[in-house]
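In keeping with the milestone schedule agreed at the kick-off meeting, the structural modelling team has produced records for the first pair of proteins. Each record is given below as a sequence line and a structure-token line. The laboratory manager (R.T.) confirmed that both were archived under the project's standard naming scheme.
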Amino acid sequence: MKYFFLLSYCLILTLQISAQGYMDIDSARKLTWSGKTSEERFSGMRSLDRFYYTTGKFDSSALLQKEMFAIAKESKRDSMMALVYRAIGNRYVTKTDYNFSIVNYARGLDYTTRDKQRRAGLYLNIAYVYIVTGNIQVALDYIQKGKAIGQTGQNLYFENLLYGLIYNDLEKPDSALFYFRQAENLPTKITDPLLISVGLLQMGRAYELQGDADLAETYYKKTMAYCKEKYLPLSIIRTGNVYCNFLMKNGKYDEAKQIALQDLDVAKKAGINEGIANVAEVLRKIYTHTAWKDSIIYYAQLQIDYKDSVSNQKKQSEFQNLTFSQQLHEIDEQTKAKEAAEEQRQNIQFALMALGIISFIIIFLLLSRSFITNTKMIEFLGVIALLIVFEFLNLLLHPFLERVTHHSPLLMLLALVCIAALLVPLHHKAEKWATAKLVEKNKQIRLAAAKKTIQQLDTKPDNKSD
């Protein structure tokens, strides 16, 4: 029971994003497919993805998360990357794949160096997972890390809920209620349906532990009605199981049976095998107190069958999780390859521009009939041109050389040396030709200047004979 009550929080305490960041499903779908910018599409996907993983549509969620990951990578925005990894972690928590959730929350932390509140929120995500797995002290350490940053808004609300959850788990309802009420009294207004449902459930749990059966039942009924109104299948099942156990403790077996049968129908329609197994266990316990003993065997067998199915799903899920991680890695590599290709294309353009400018200057100096140019300048510009040509060929041939040499540094070095060996003699010949041309041009300019000076002297009156 201890872990069962903790699981009732798993759909919400992992959602550390402002409620205003989500939108209704129809708007999310429209924005996902027809958003004008990548930011708009990403925003729509966030809301749609959240709907998918909170209602058990994990395959659809995984597909959207891969799209979100690709957008975040192309946009090069740390905030988007942190949101994607948090969403992935949330999905794994919902599936009770806690190891994978921790890994992805930790990856999200790598993108929060400049966003302290999002970092604090991820610390709370990680703390929740440790609470669920029974590591209370580790969970408290992560809560303290968040507190050290300084919680505000949603994070402060969730911090109080986490403390309430811990005290419920420790069966200290007075302390739990203190933190739940403190969360309610914060100025931040929570509109998230799943969060509201879980808060109601945990309040009921605290009152049950306190021995106030009337208030506990009031909150359980309120939670069930709210979950059905908002159609939160996972919350309906988990809340229903908690409520049924409460009713059985109070001898209300017929009422518990009615609720459990309704929950079983919800679990079957939603295809939640773990939910079916849990509800079947509740029904088995209920029928031990009724006259229909055959039903005990039926639900016991149903529980066994679906537990086996859940076990098989877990094994398959682990393989799918590894596959998903590899797919994200491939998206990352493809994005890096595209960025490298774009960068190379730009570098080639810059090299061509620089080469064109240097070539233009050299040609201008060689062909100009009015400038006397120092040969040292031509030699300097020639060296610069040689370096630019070498770098241009390096950029142009680098991908080809990598494929041919299979990324061998030694072979690539030899190839570049060969290219340089061809360029240097050509450069030497071009430099000699340019220098010769320059010397000849300078002689012609000086000769022309001398002739002009003589002519000017000859035409002066003082130089004419009487």
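The second protein of the pair:
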Amino acid sequence: MSNSITLEERIQQLENSLYQAKEILSFEEACAFLNFSKSYLYKLTSSCAIPHYKPSGKMVYFERKALENWLRQNPVKTREQIEMDANAYIMRNQHKKK
């Protein structure tokens, strides 16, 4: 049974499936979905650094799609992408100098 997964891994997979099915996540669910500690997520919400909702002024909720979009902010380019951008920049500027 070397290819079998542990019970904990299976539970984690099931929890992840549930989070993907839900559109609105509670604070605890968002922590699990993002793999953030409660203190870090609280810091992000209190500084308004992450999109969230407080319908009653106390409980915090998150829209799953908004969290996914937030996670996709500031992508880091690969070396290949940087080199391609640099080559394109050089080609554009060579034409301007002539």
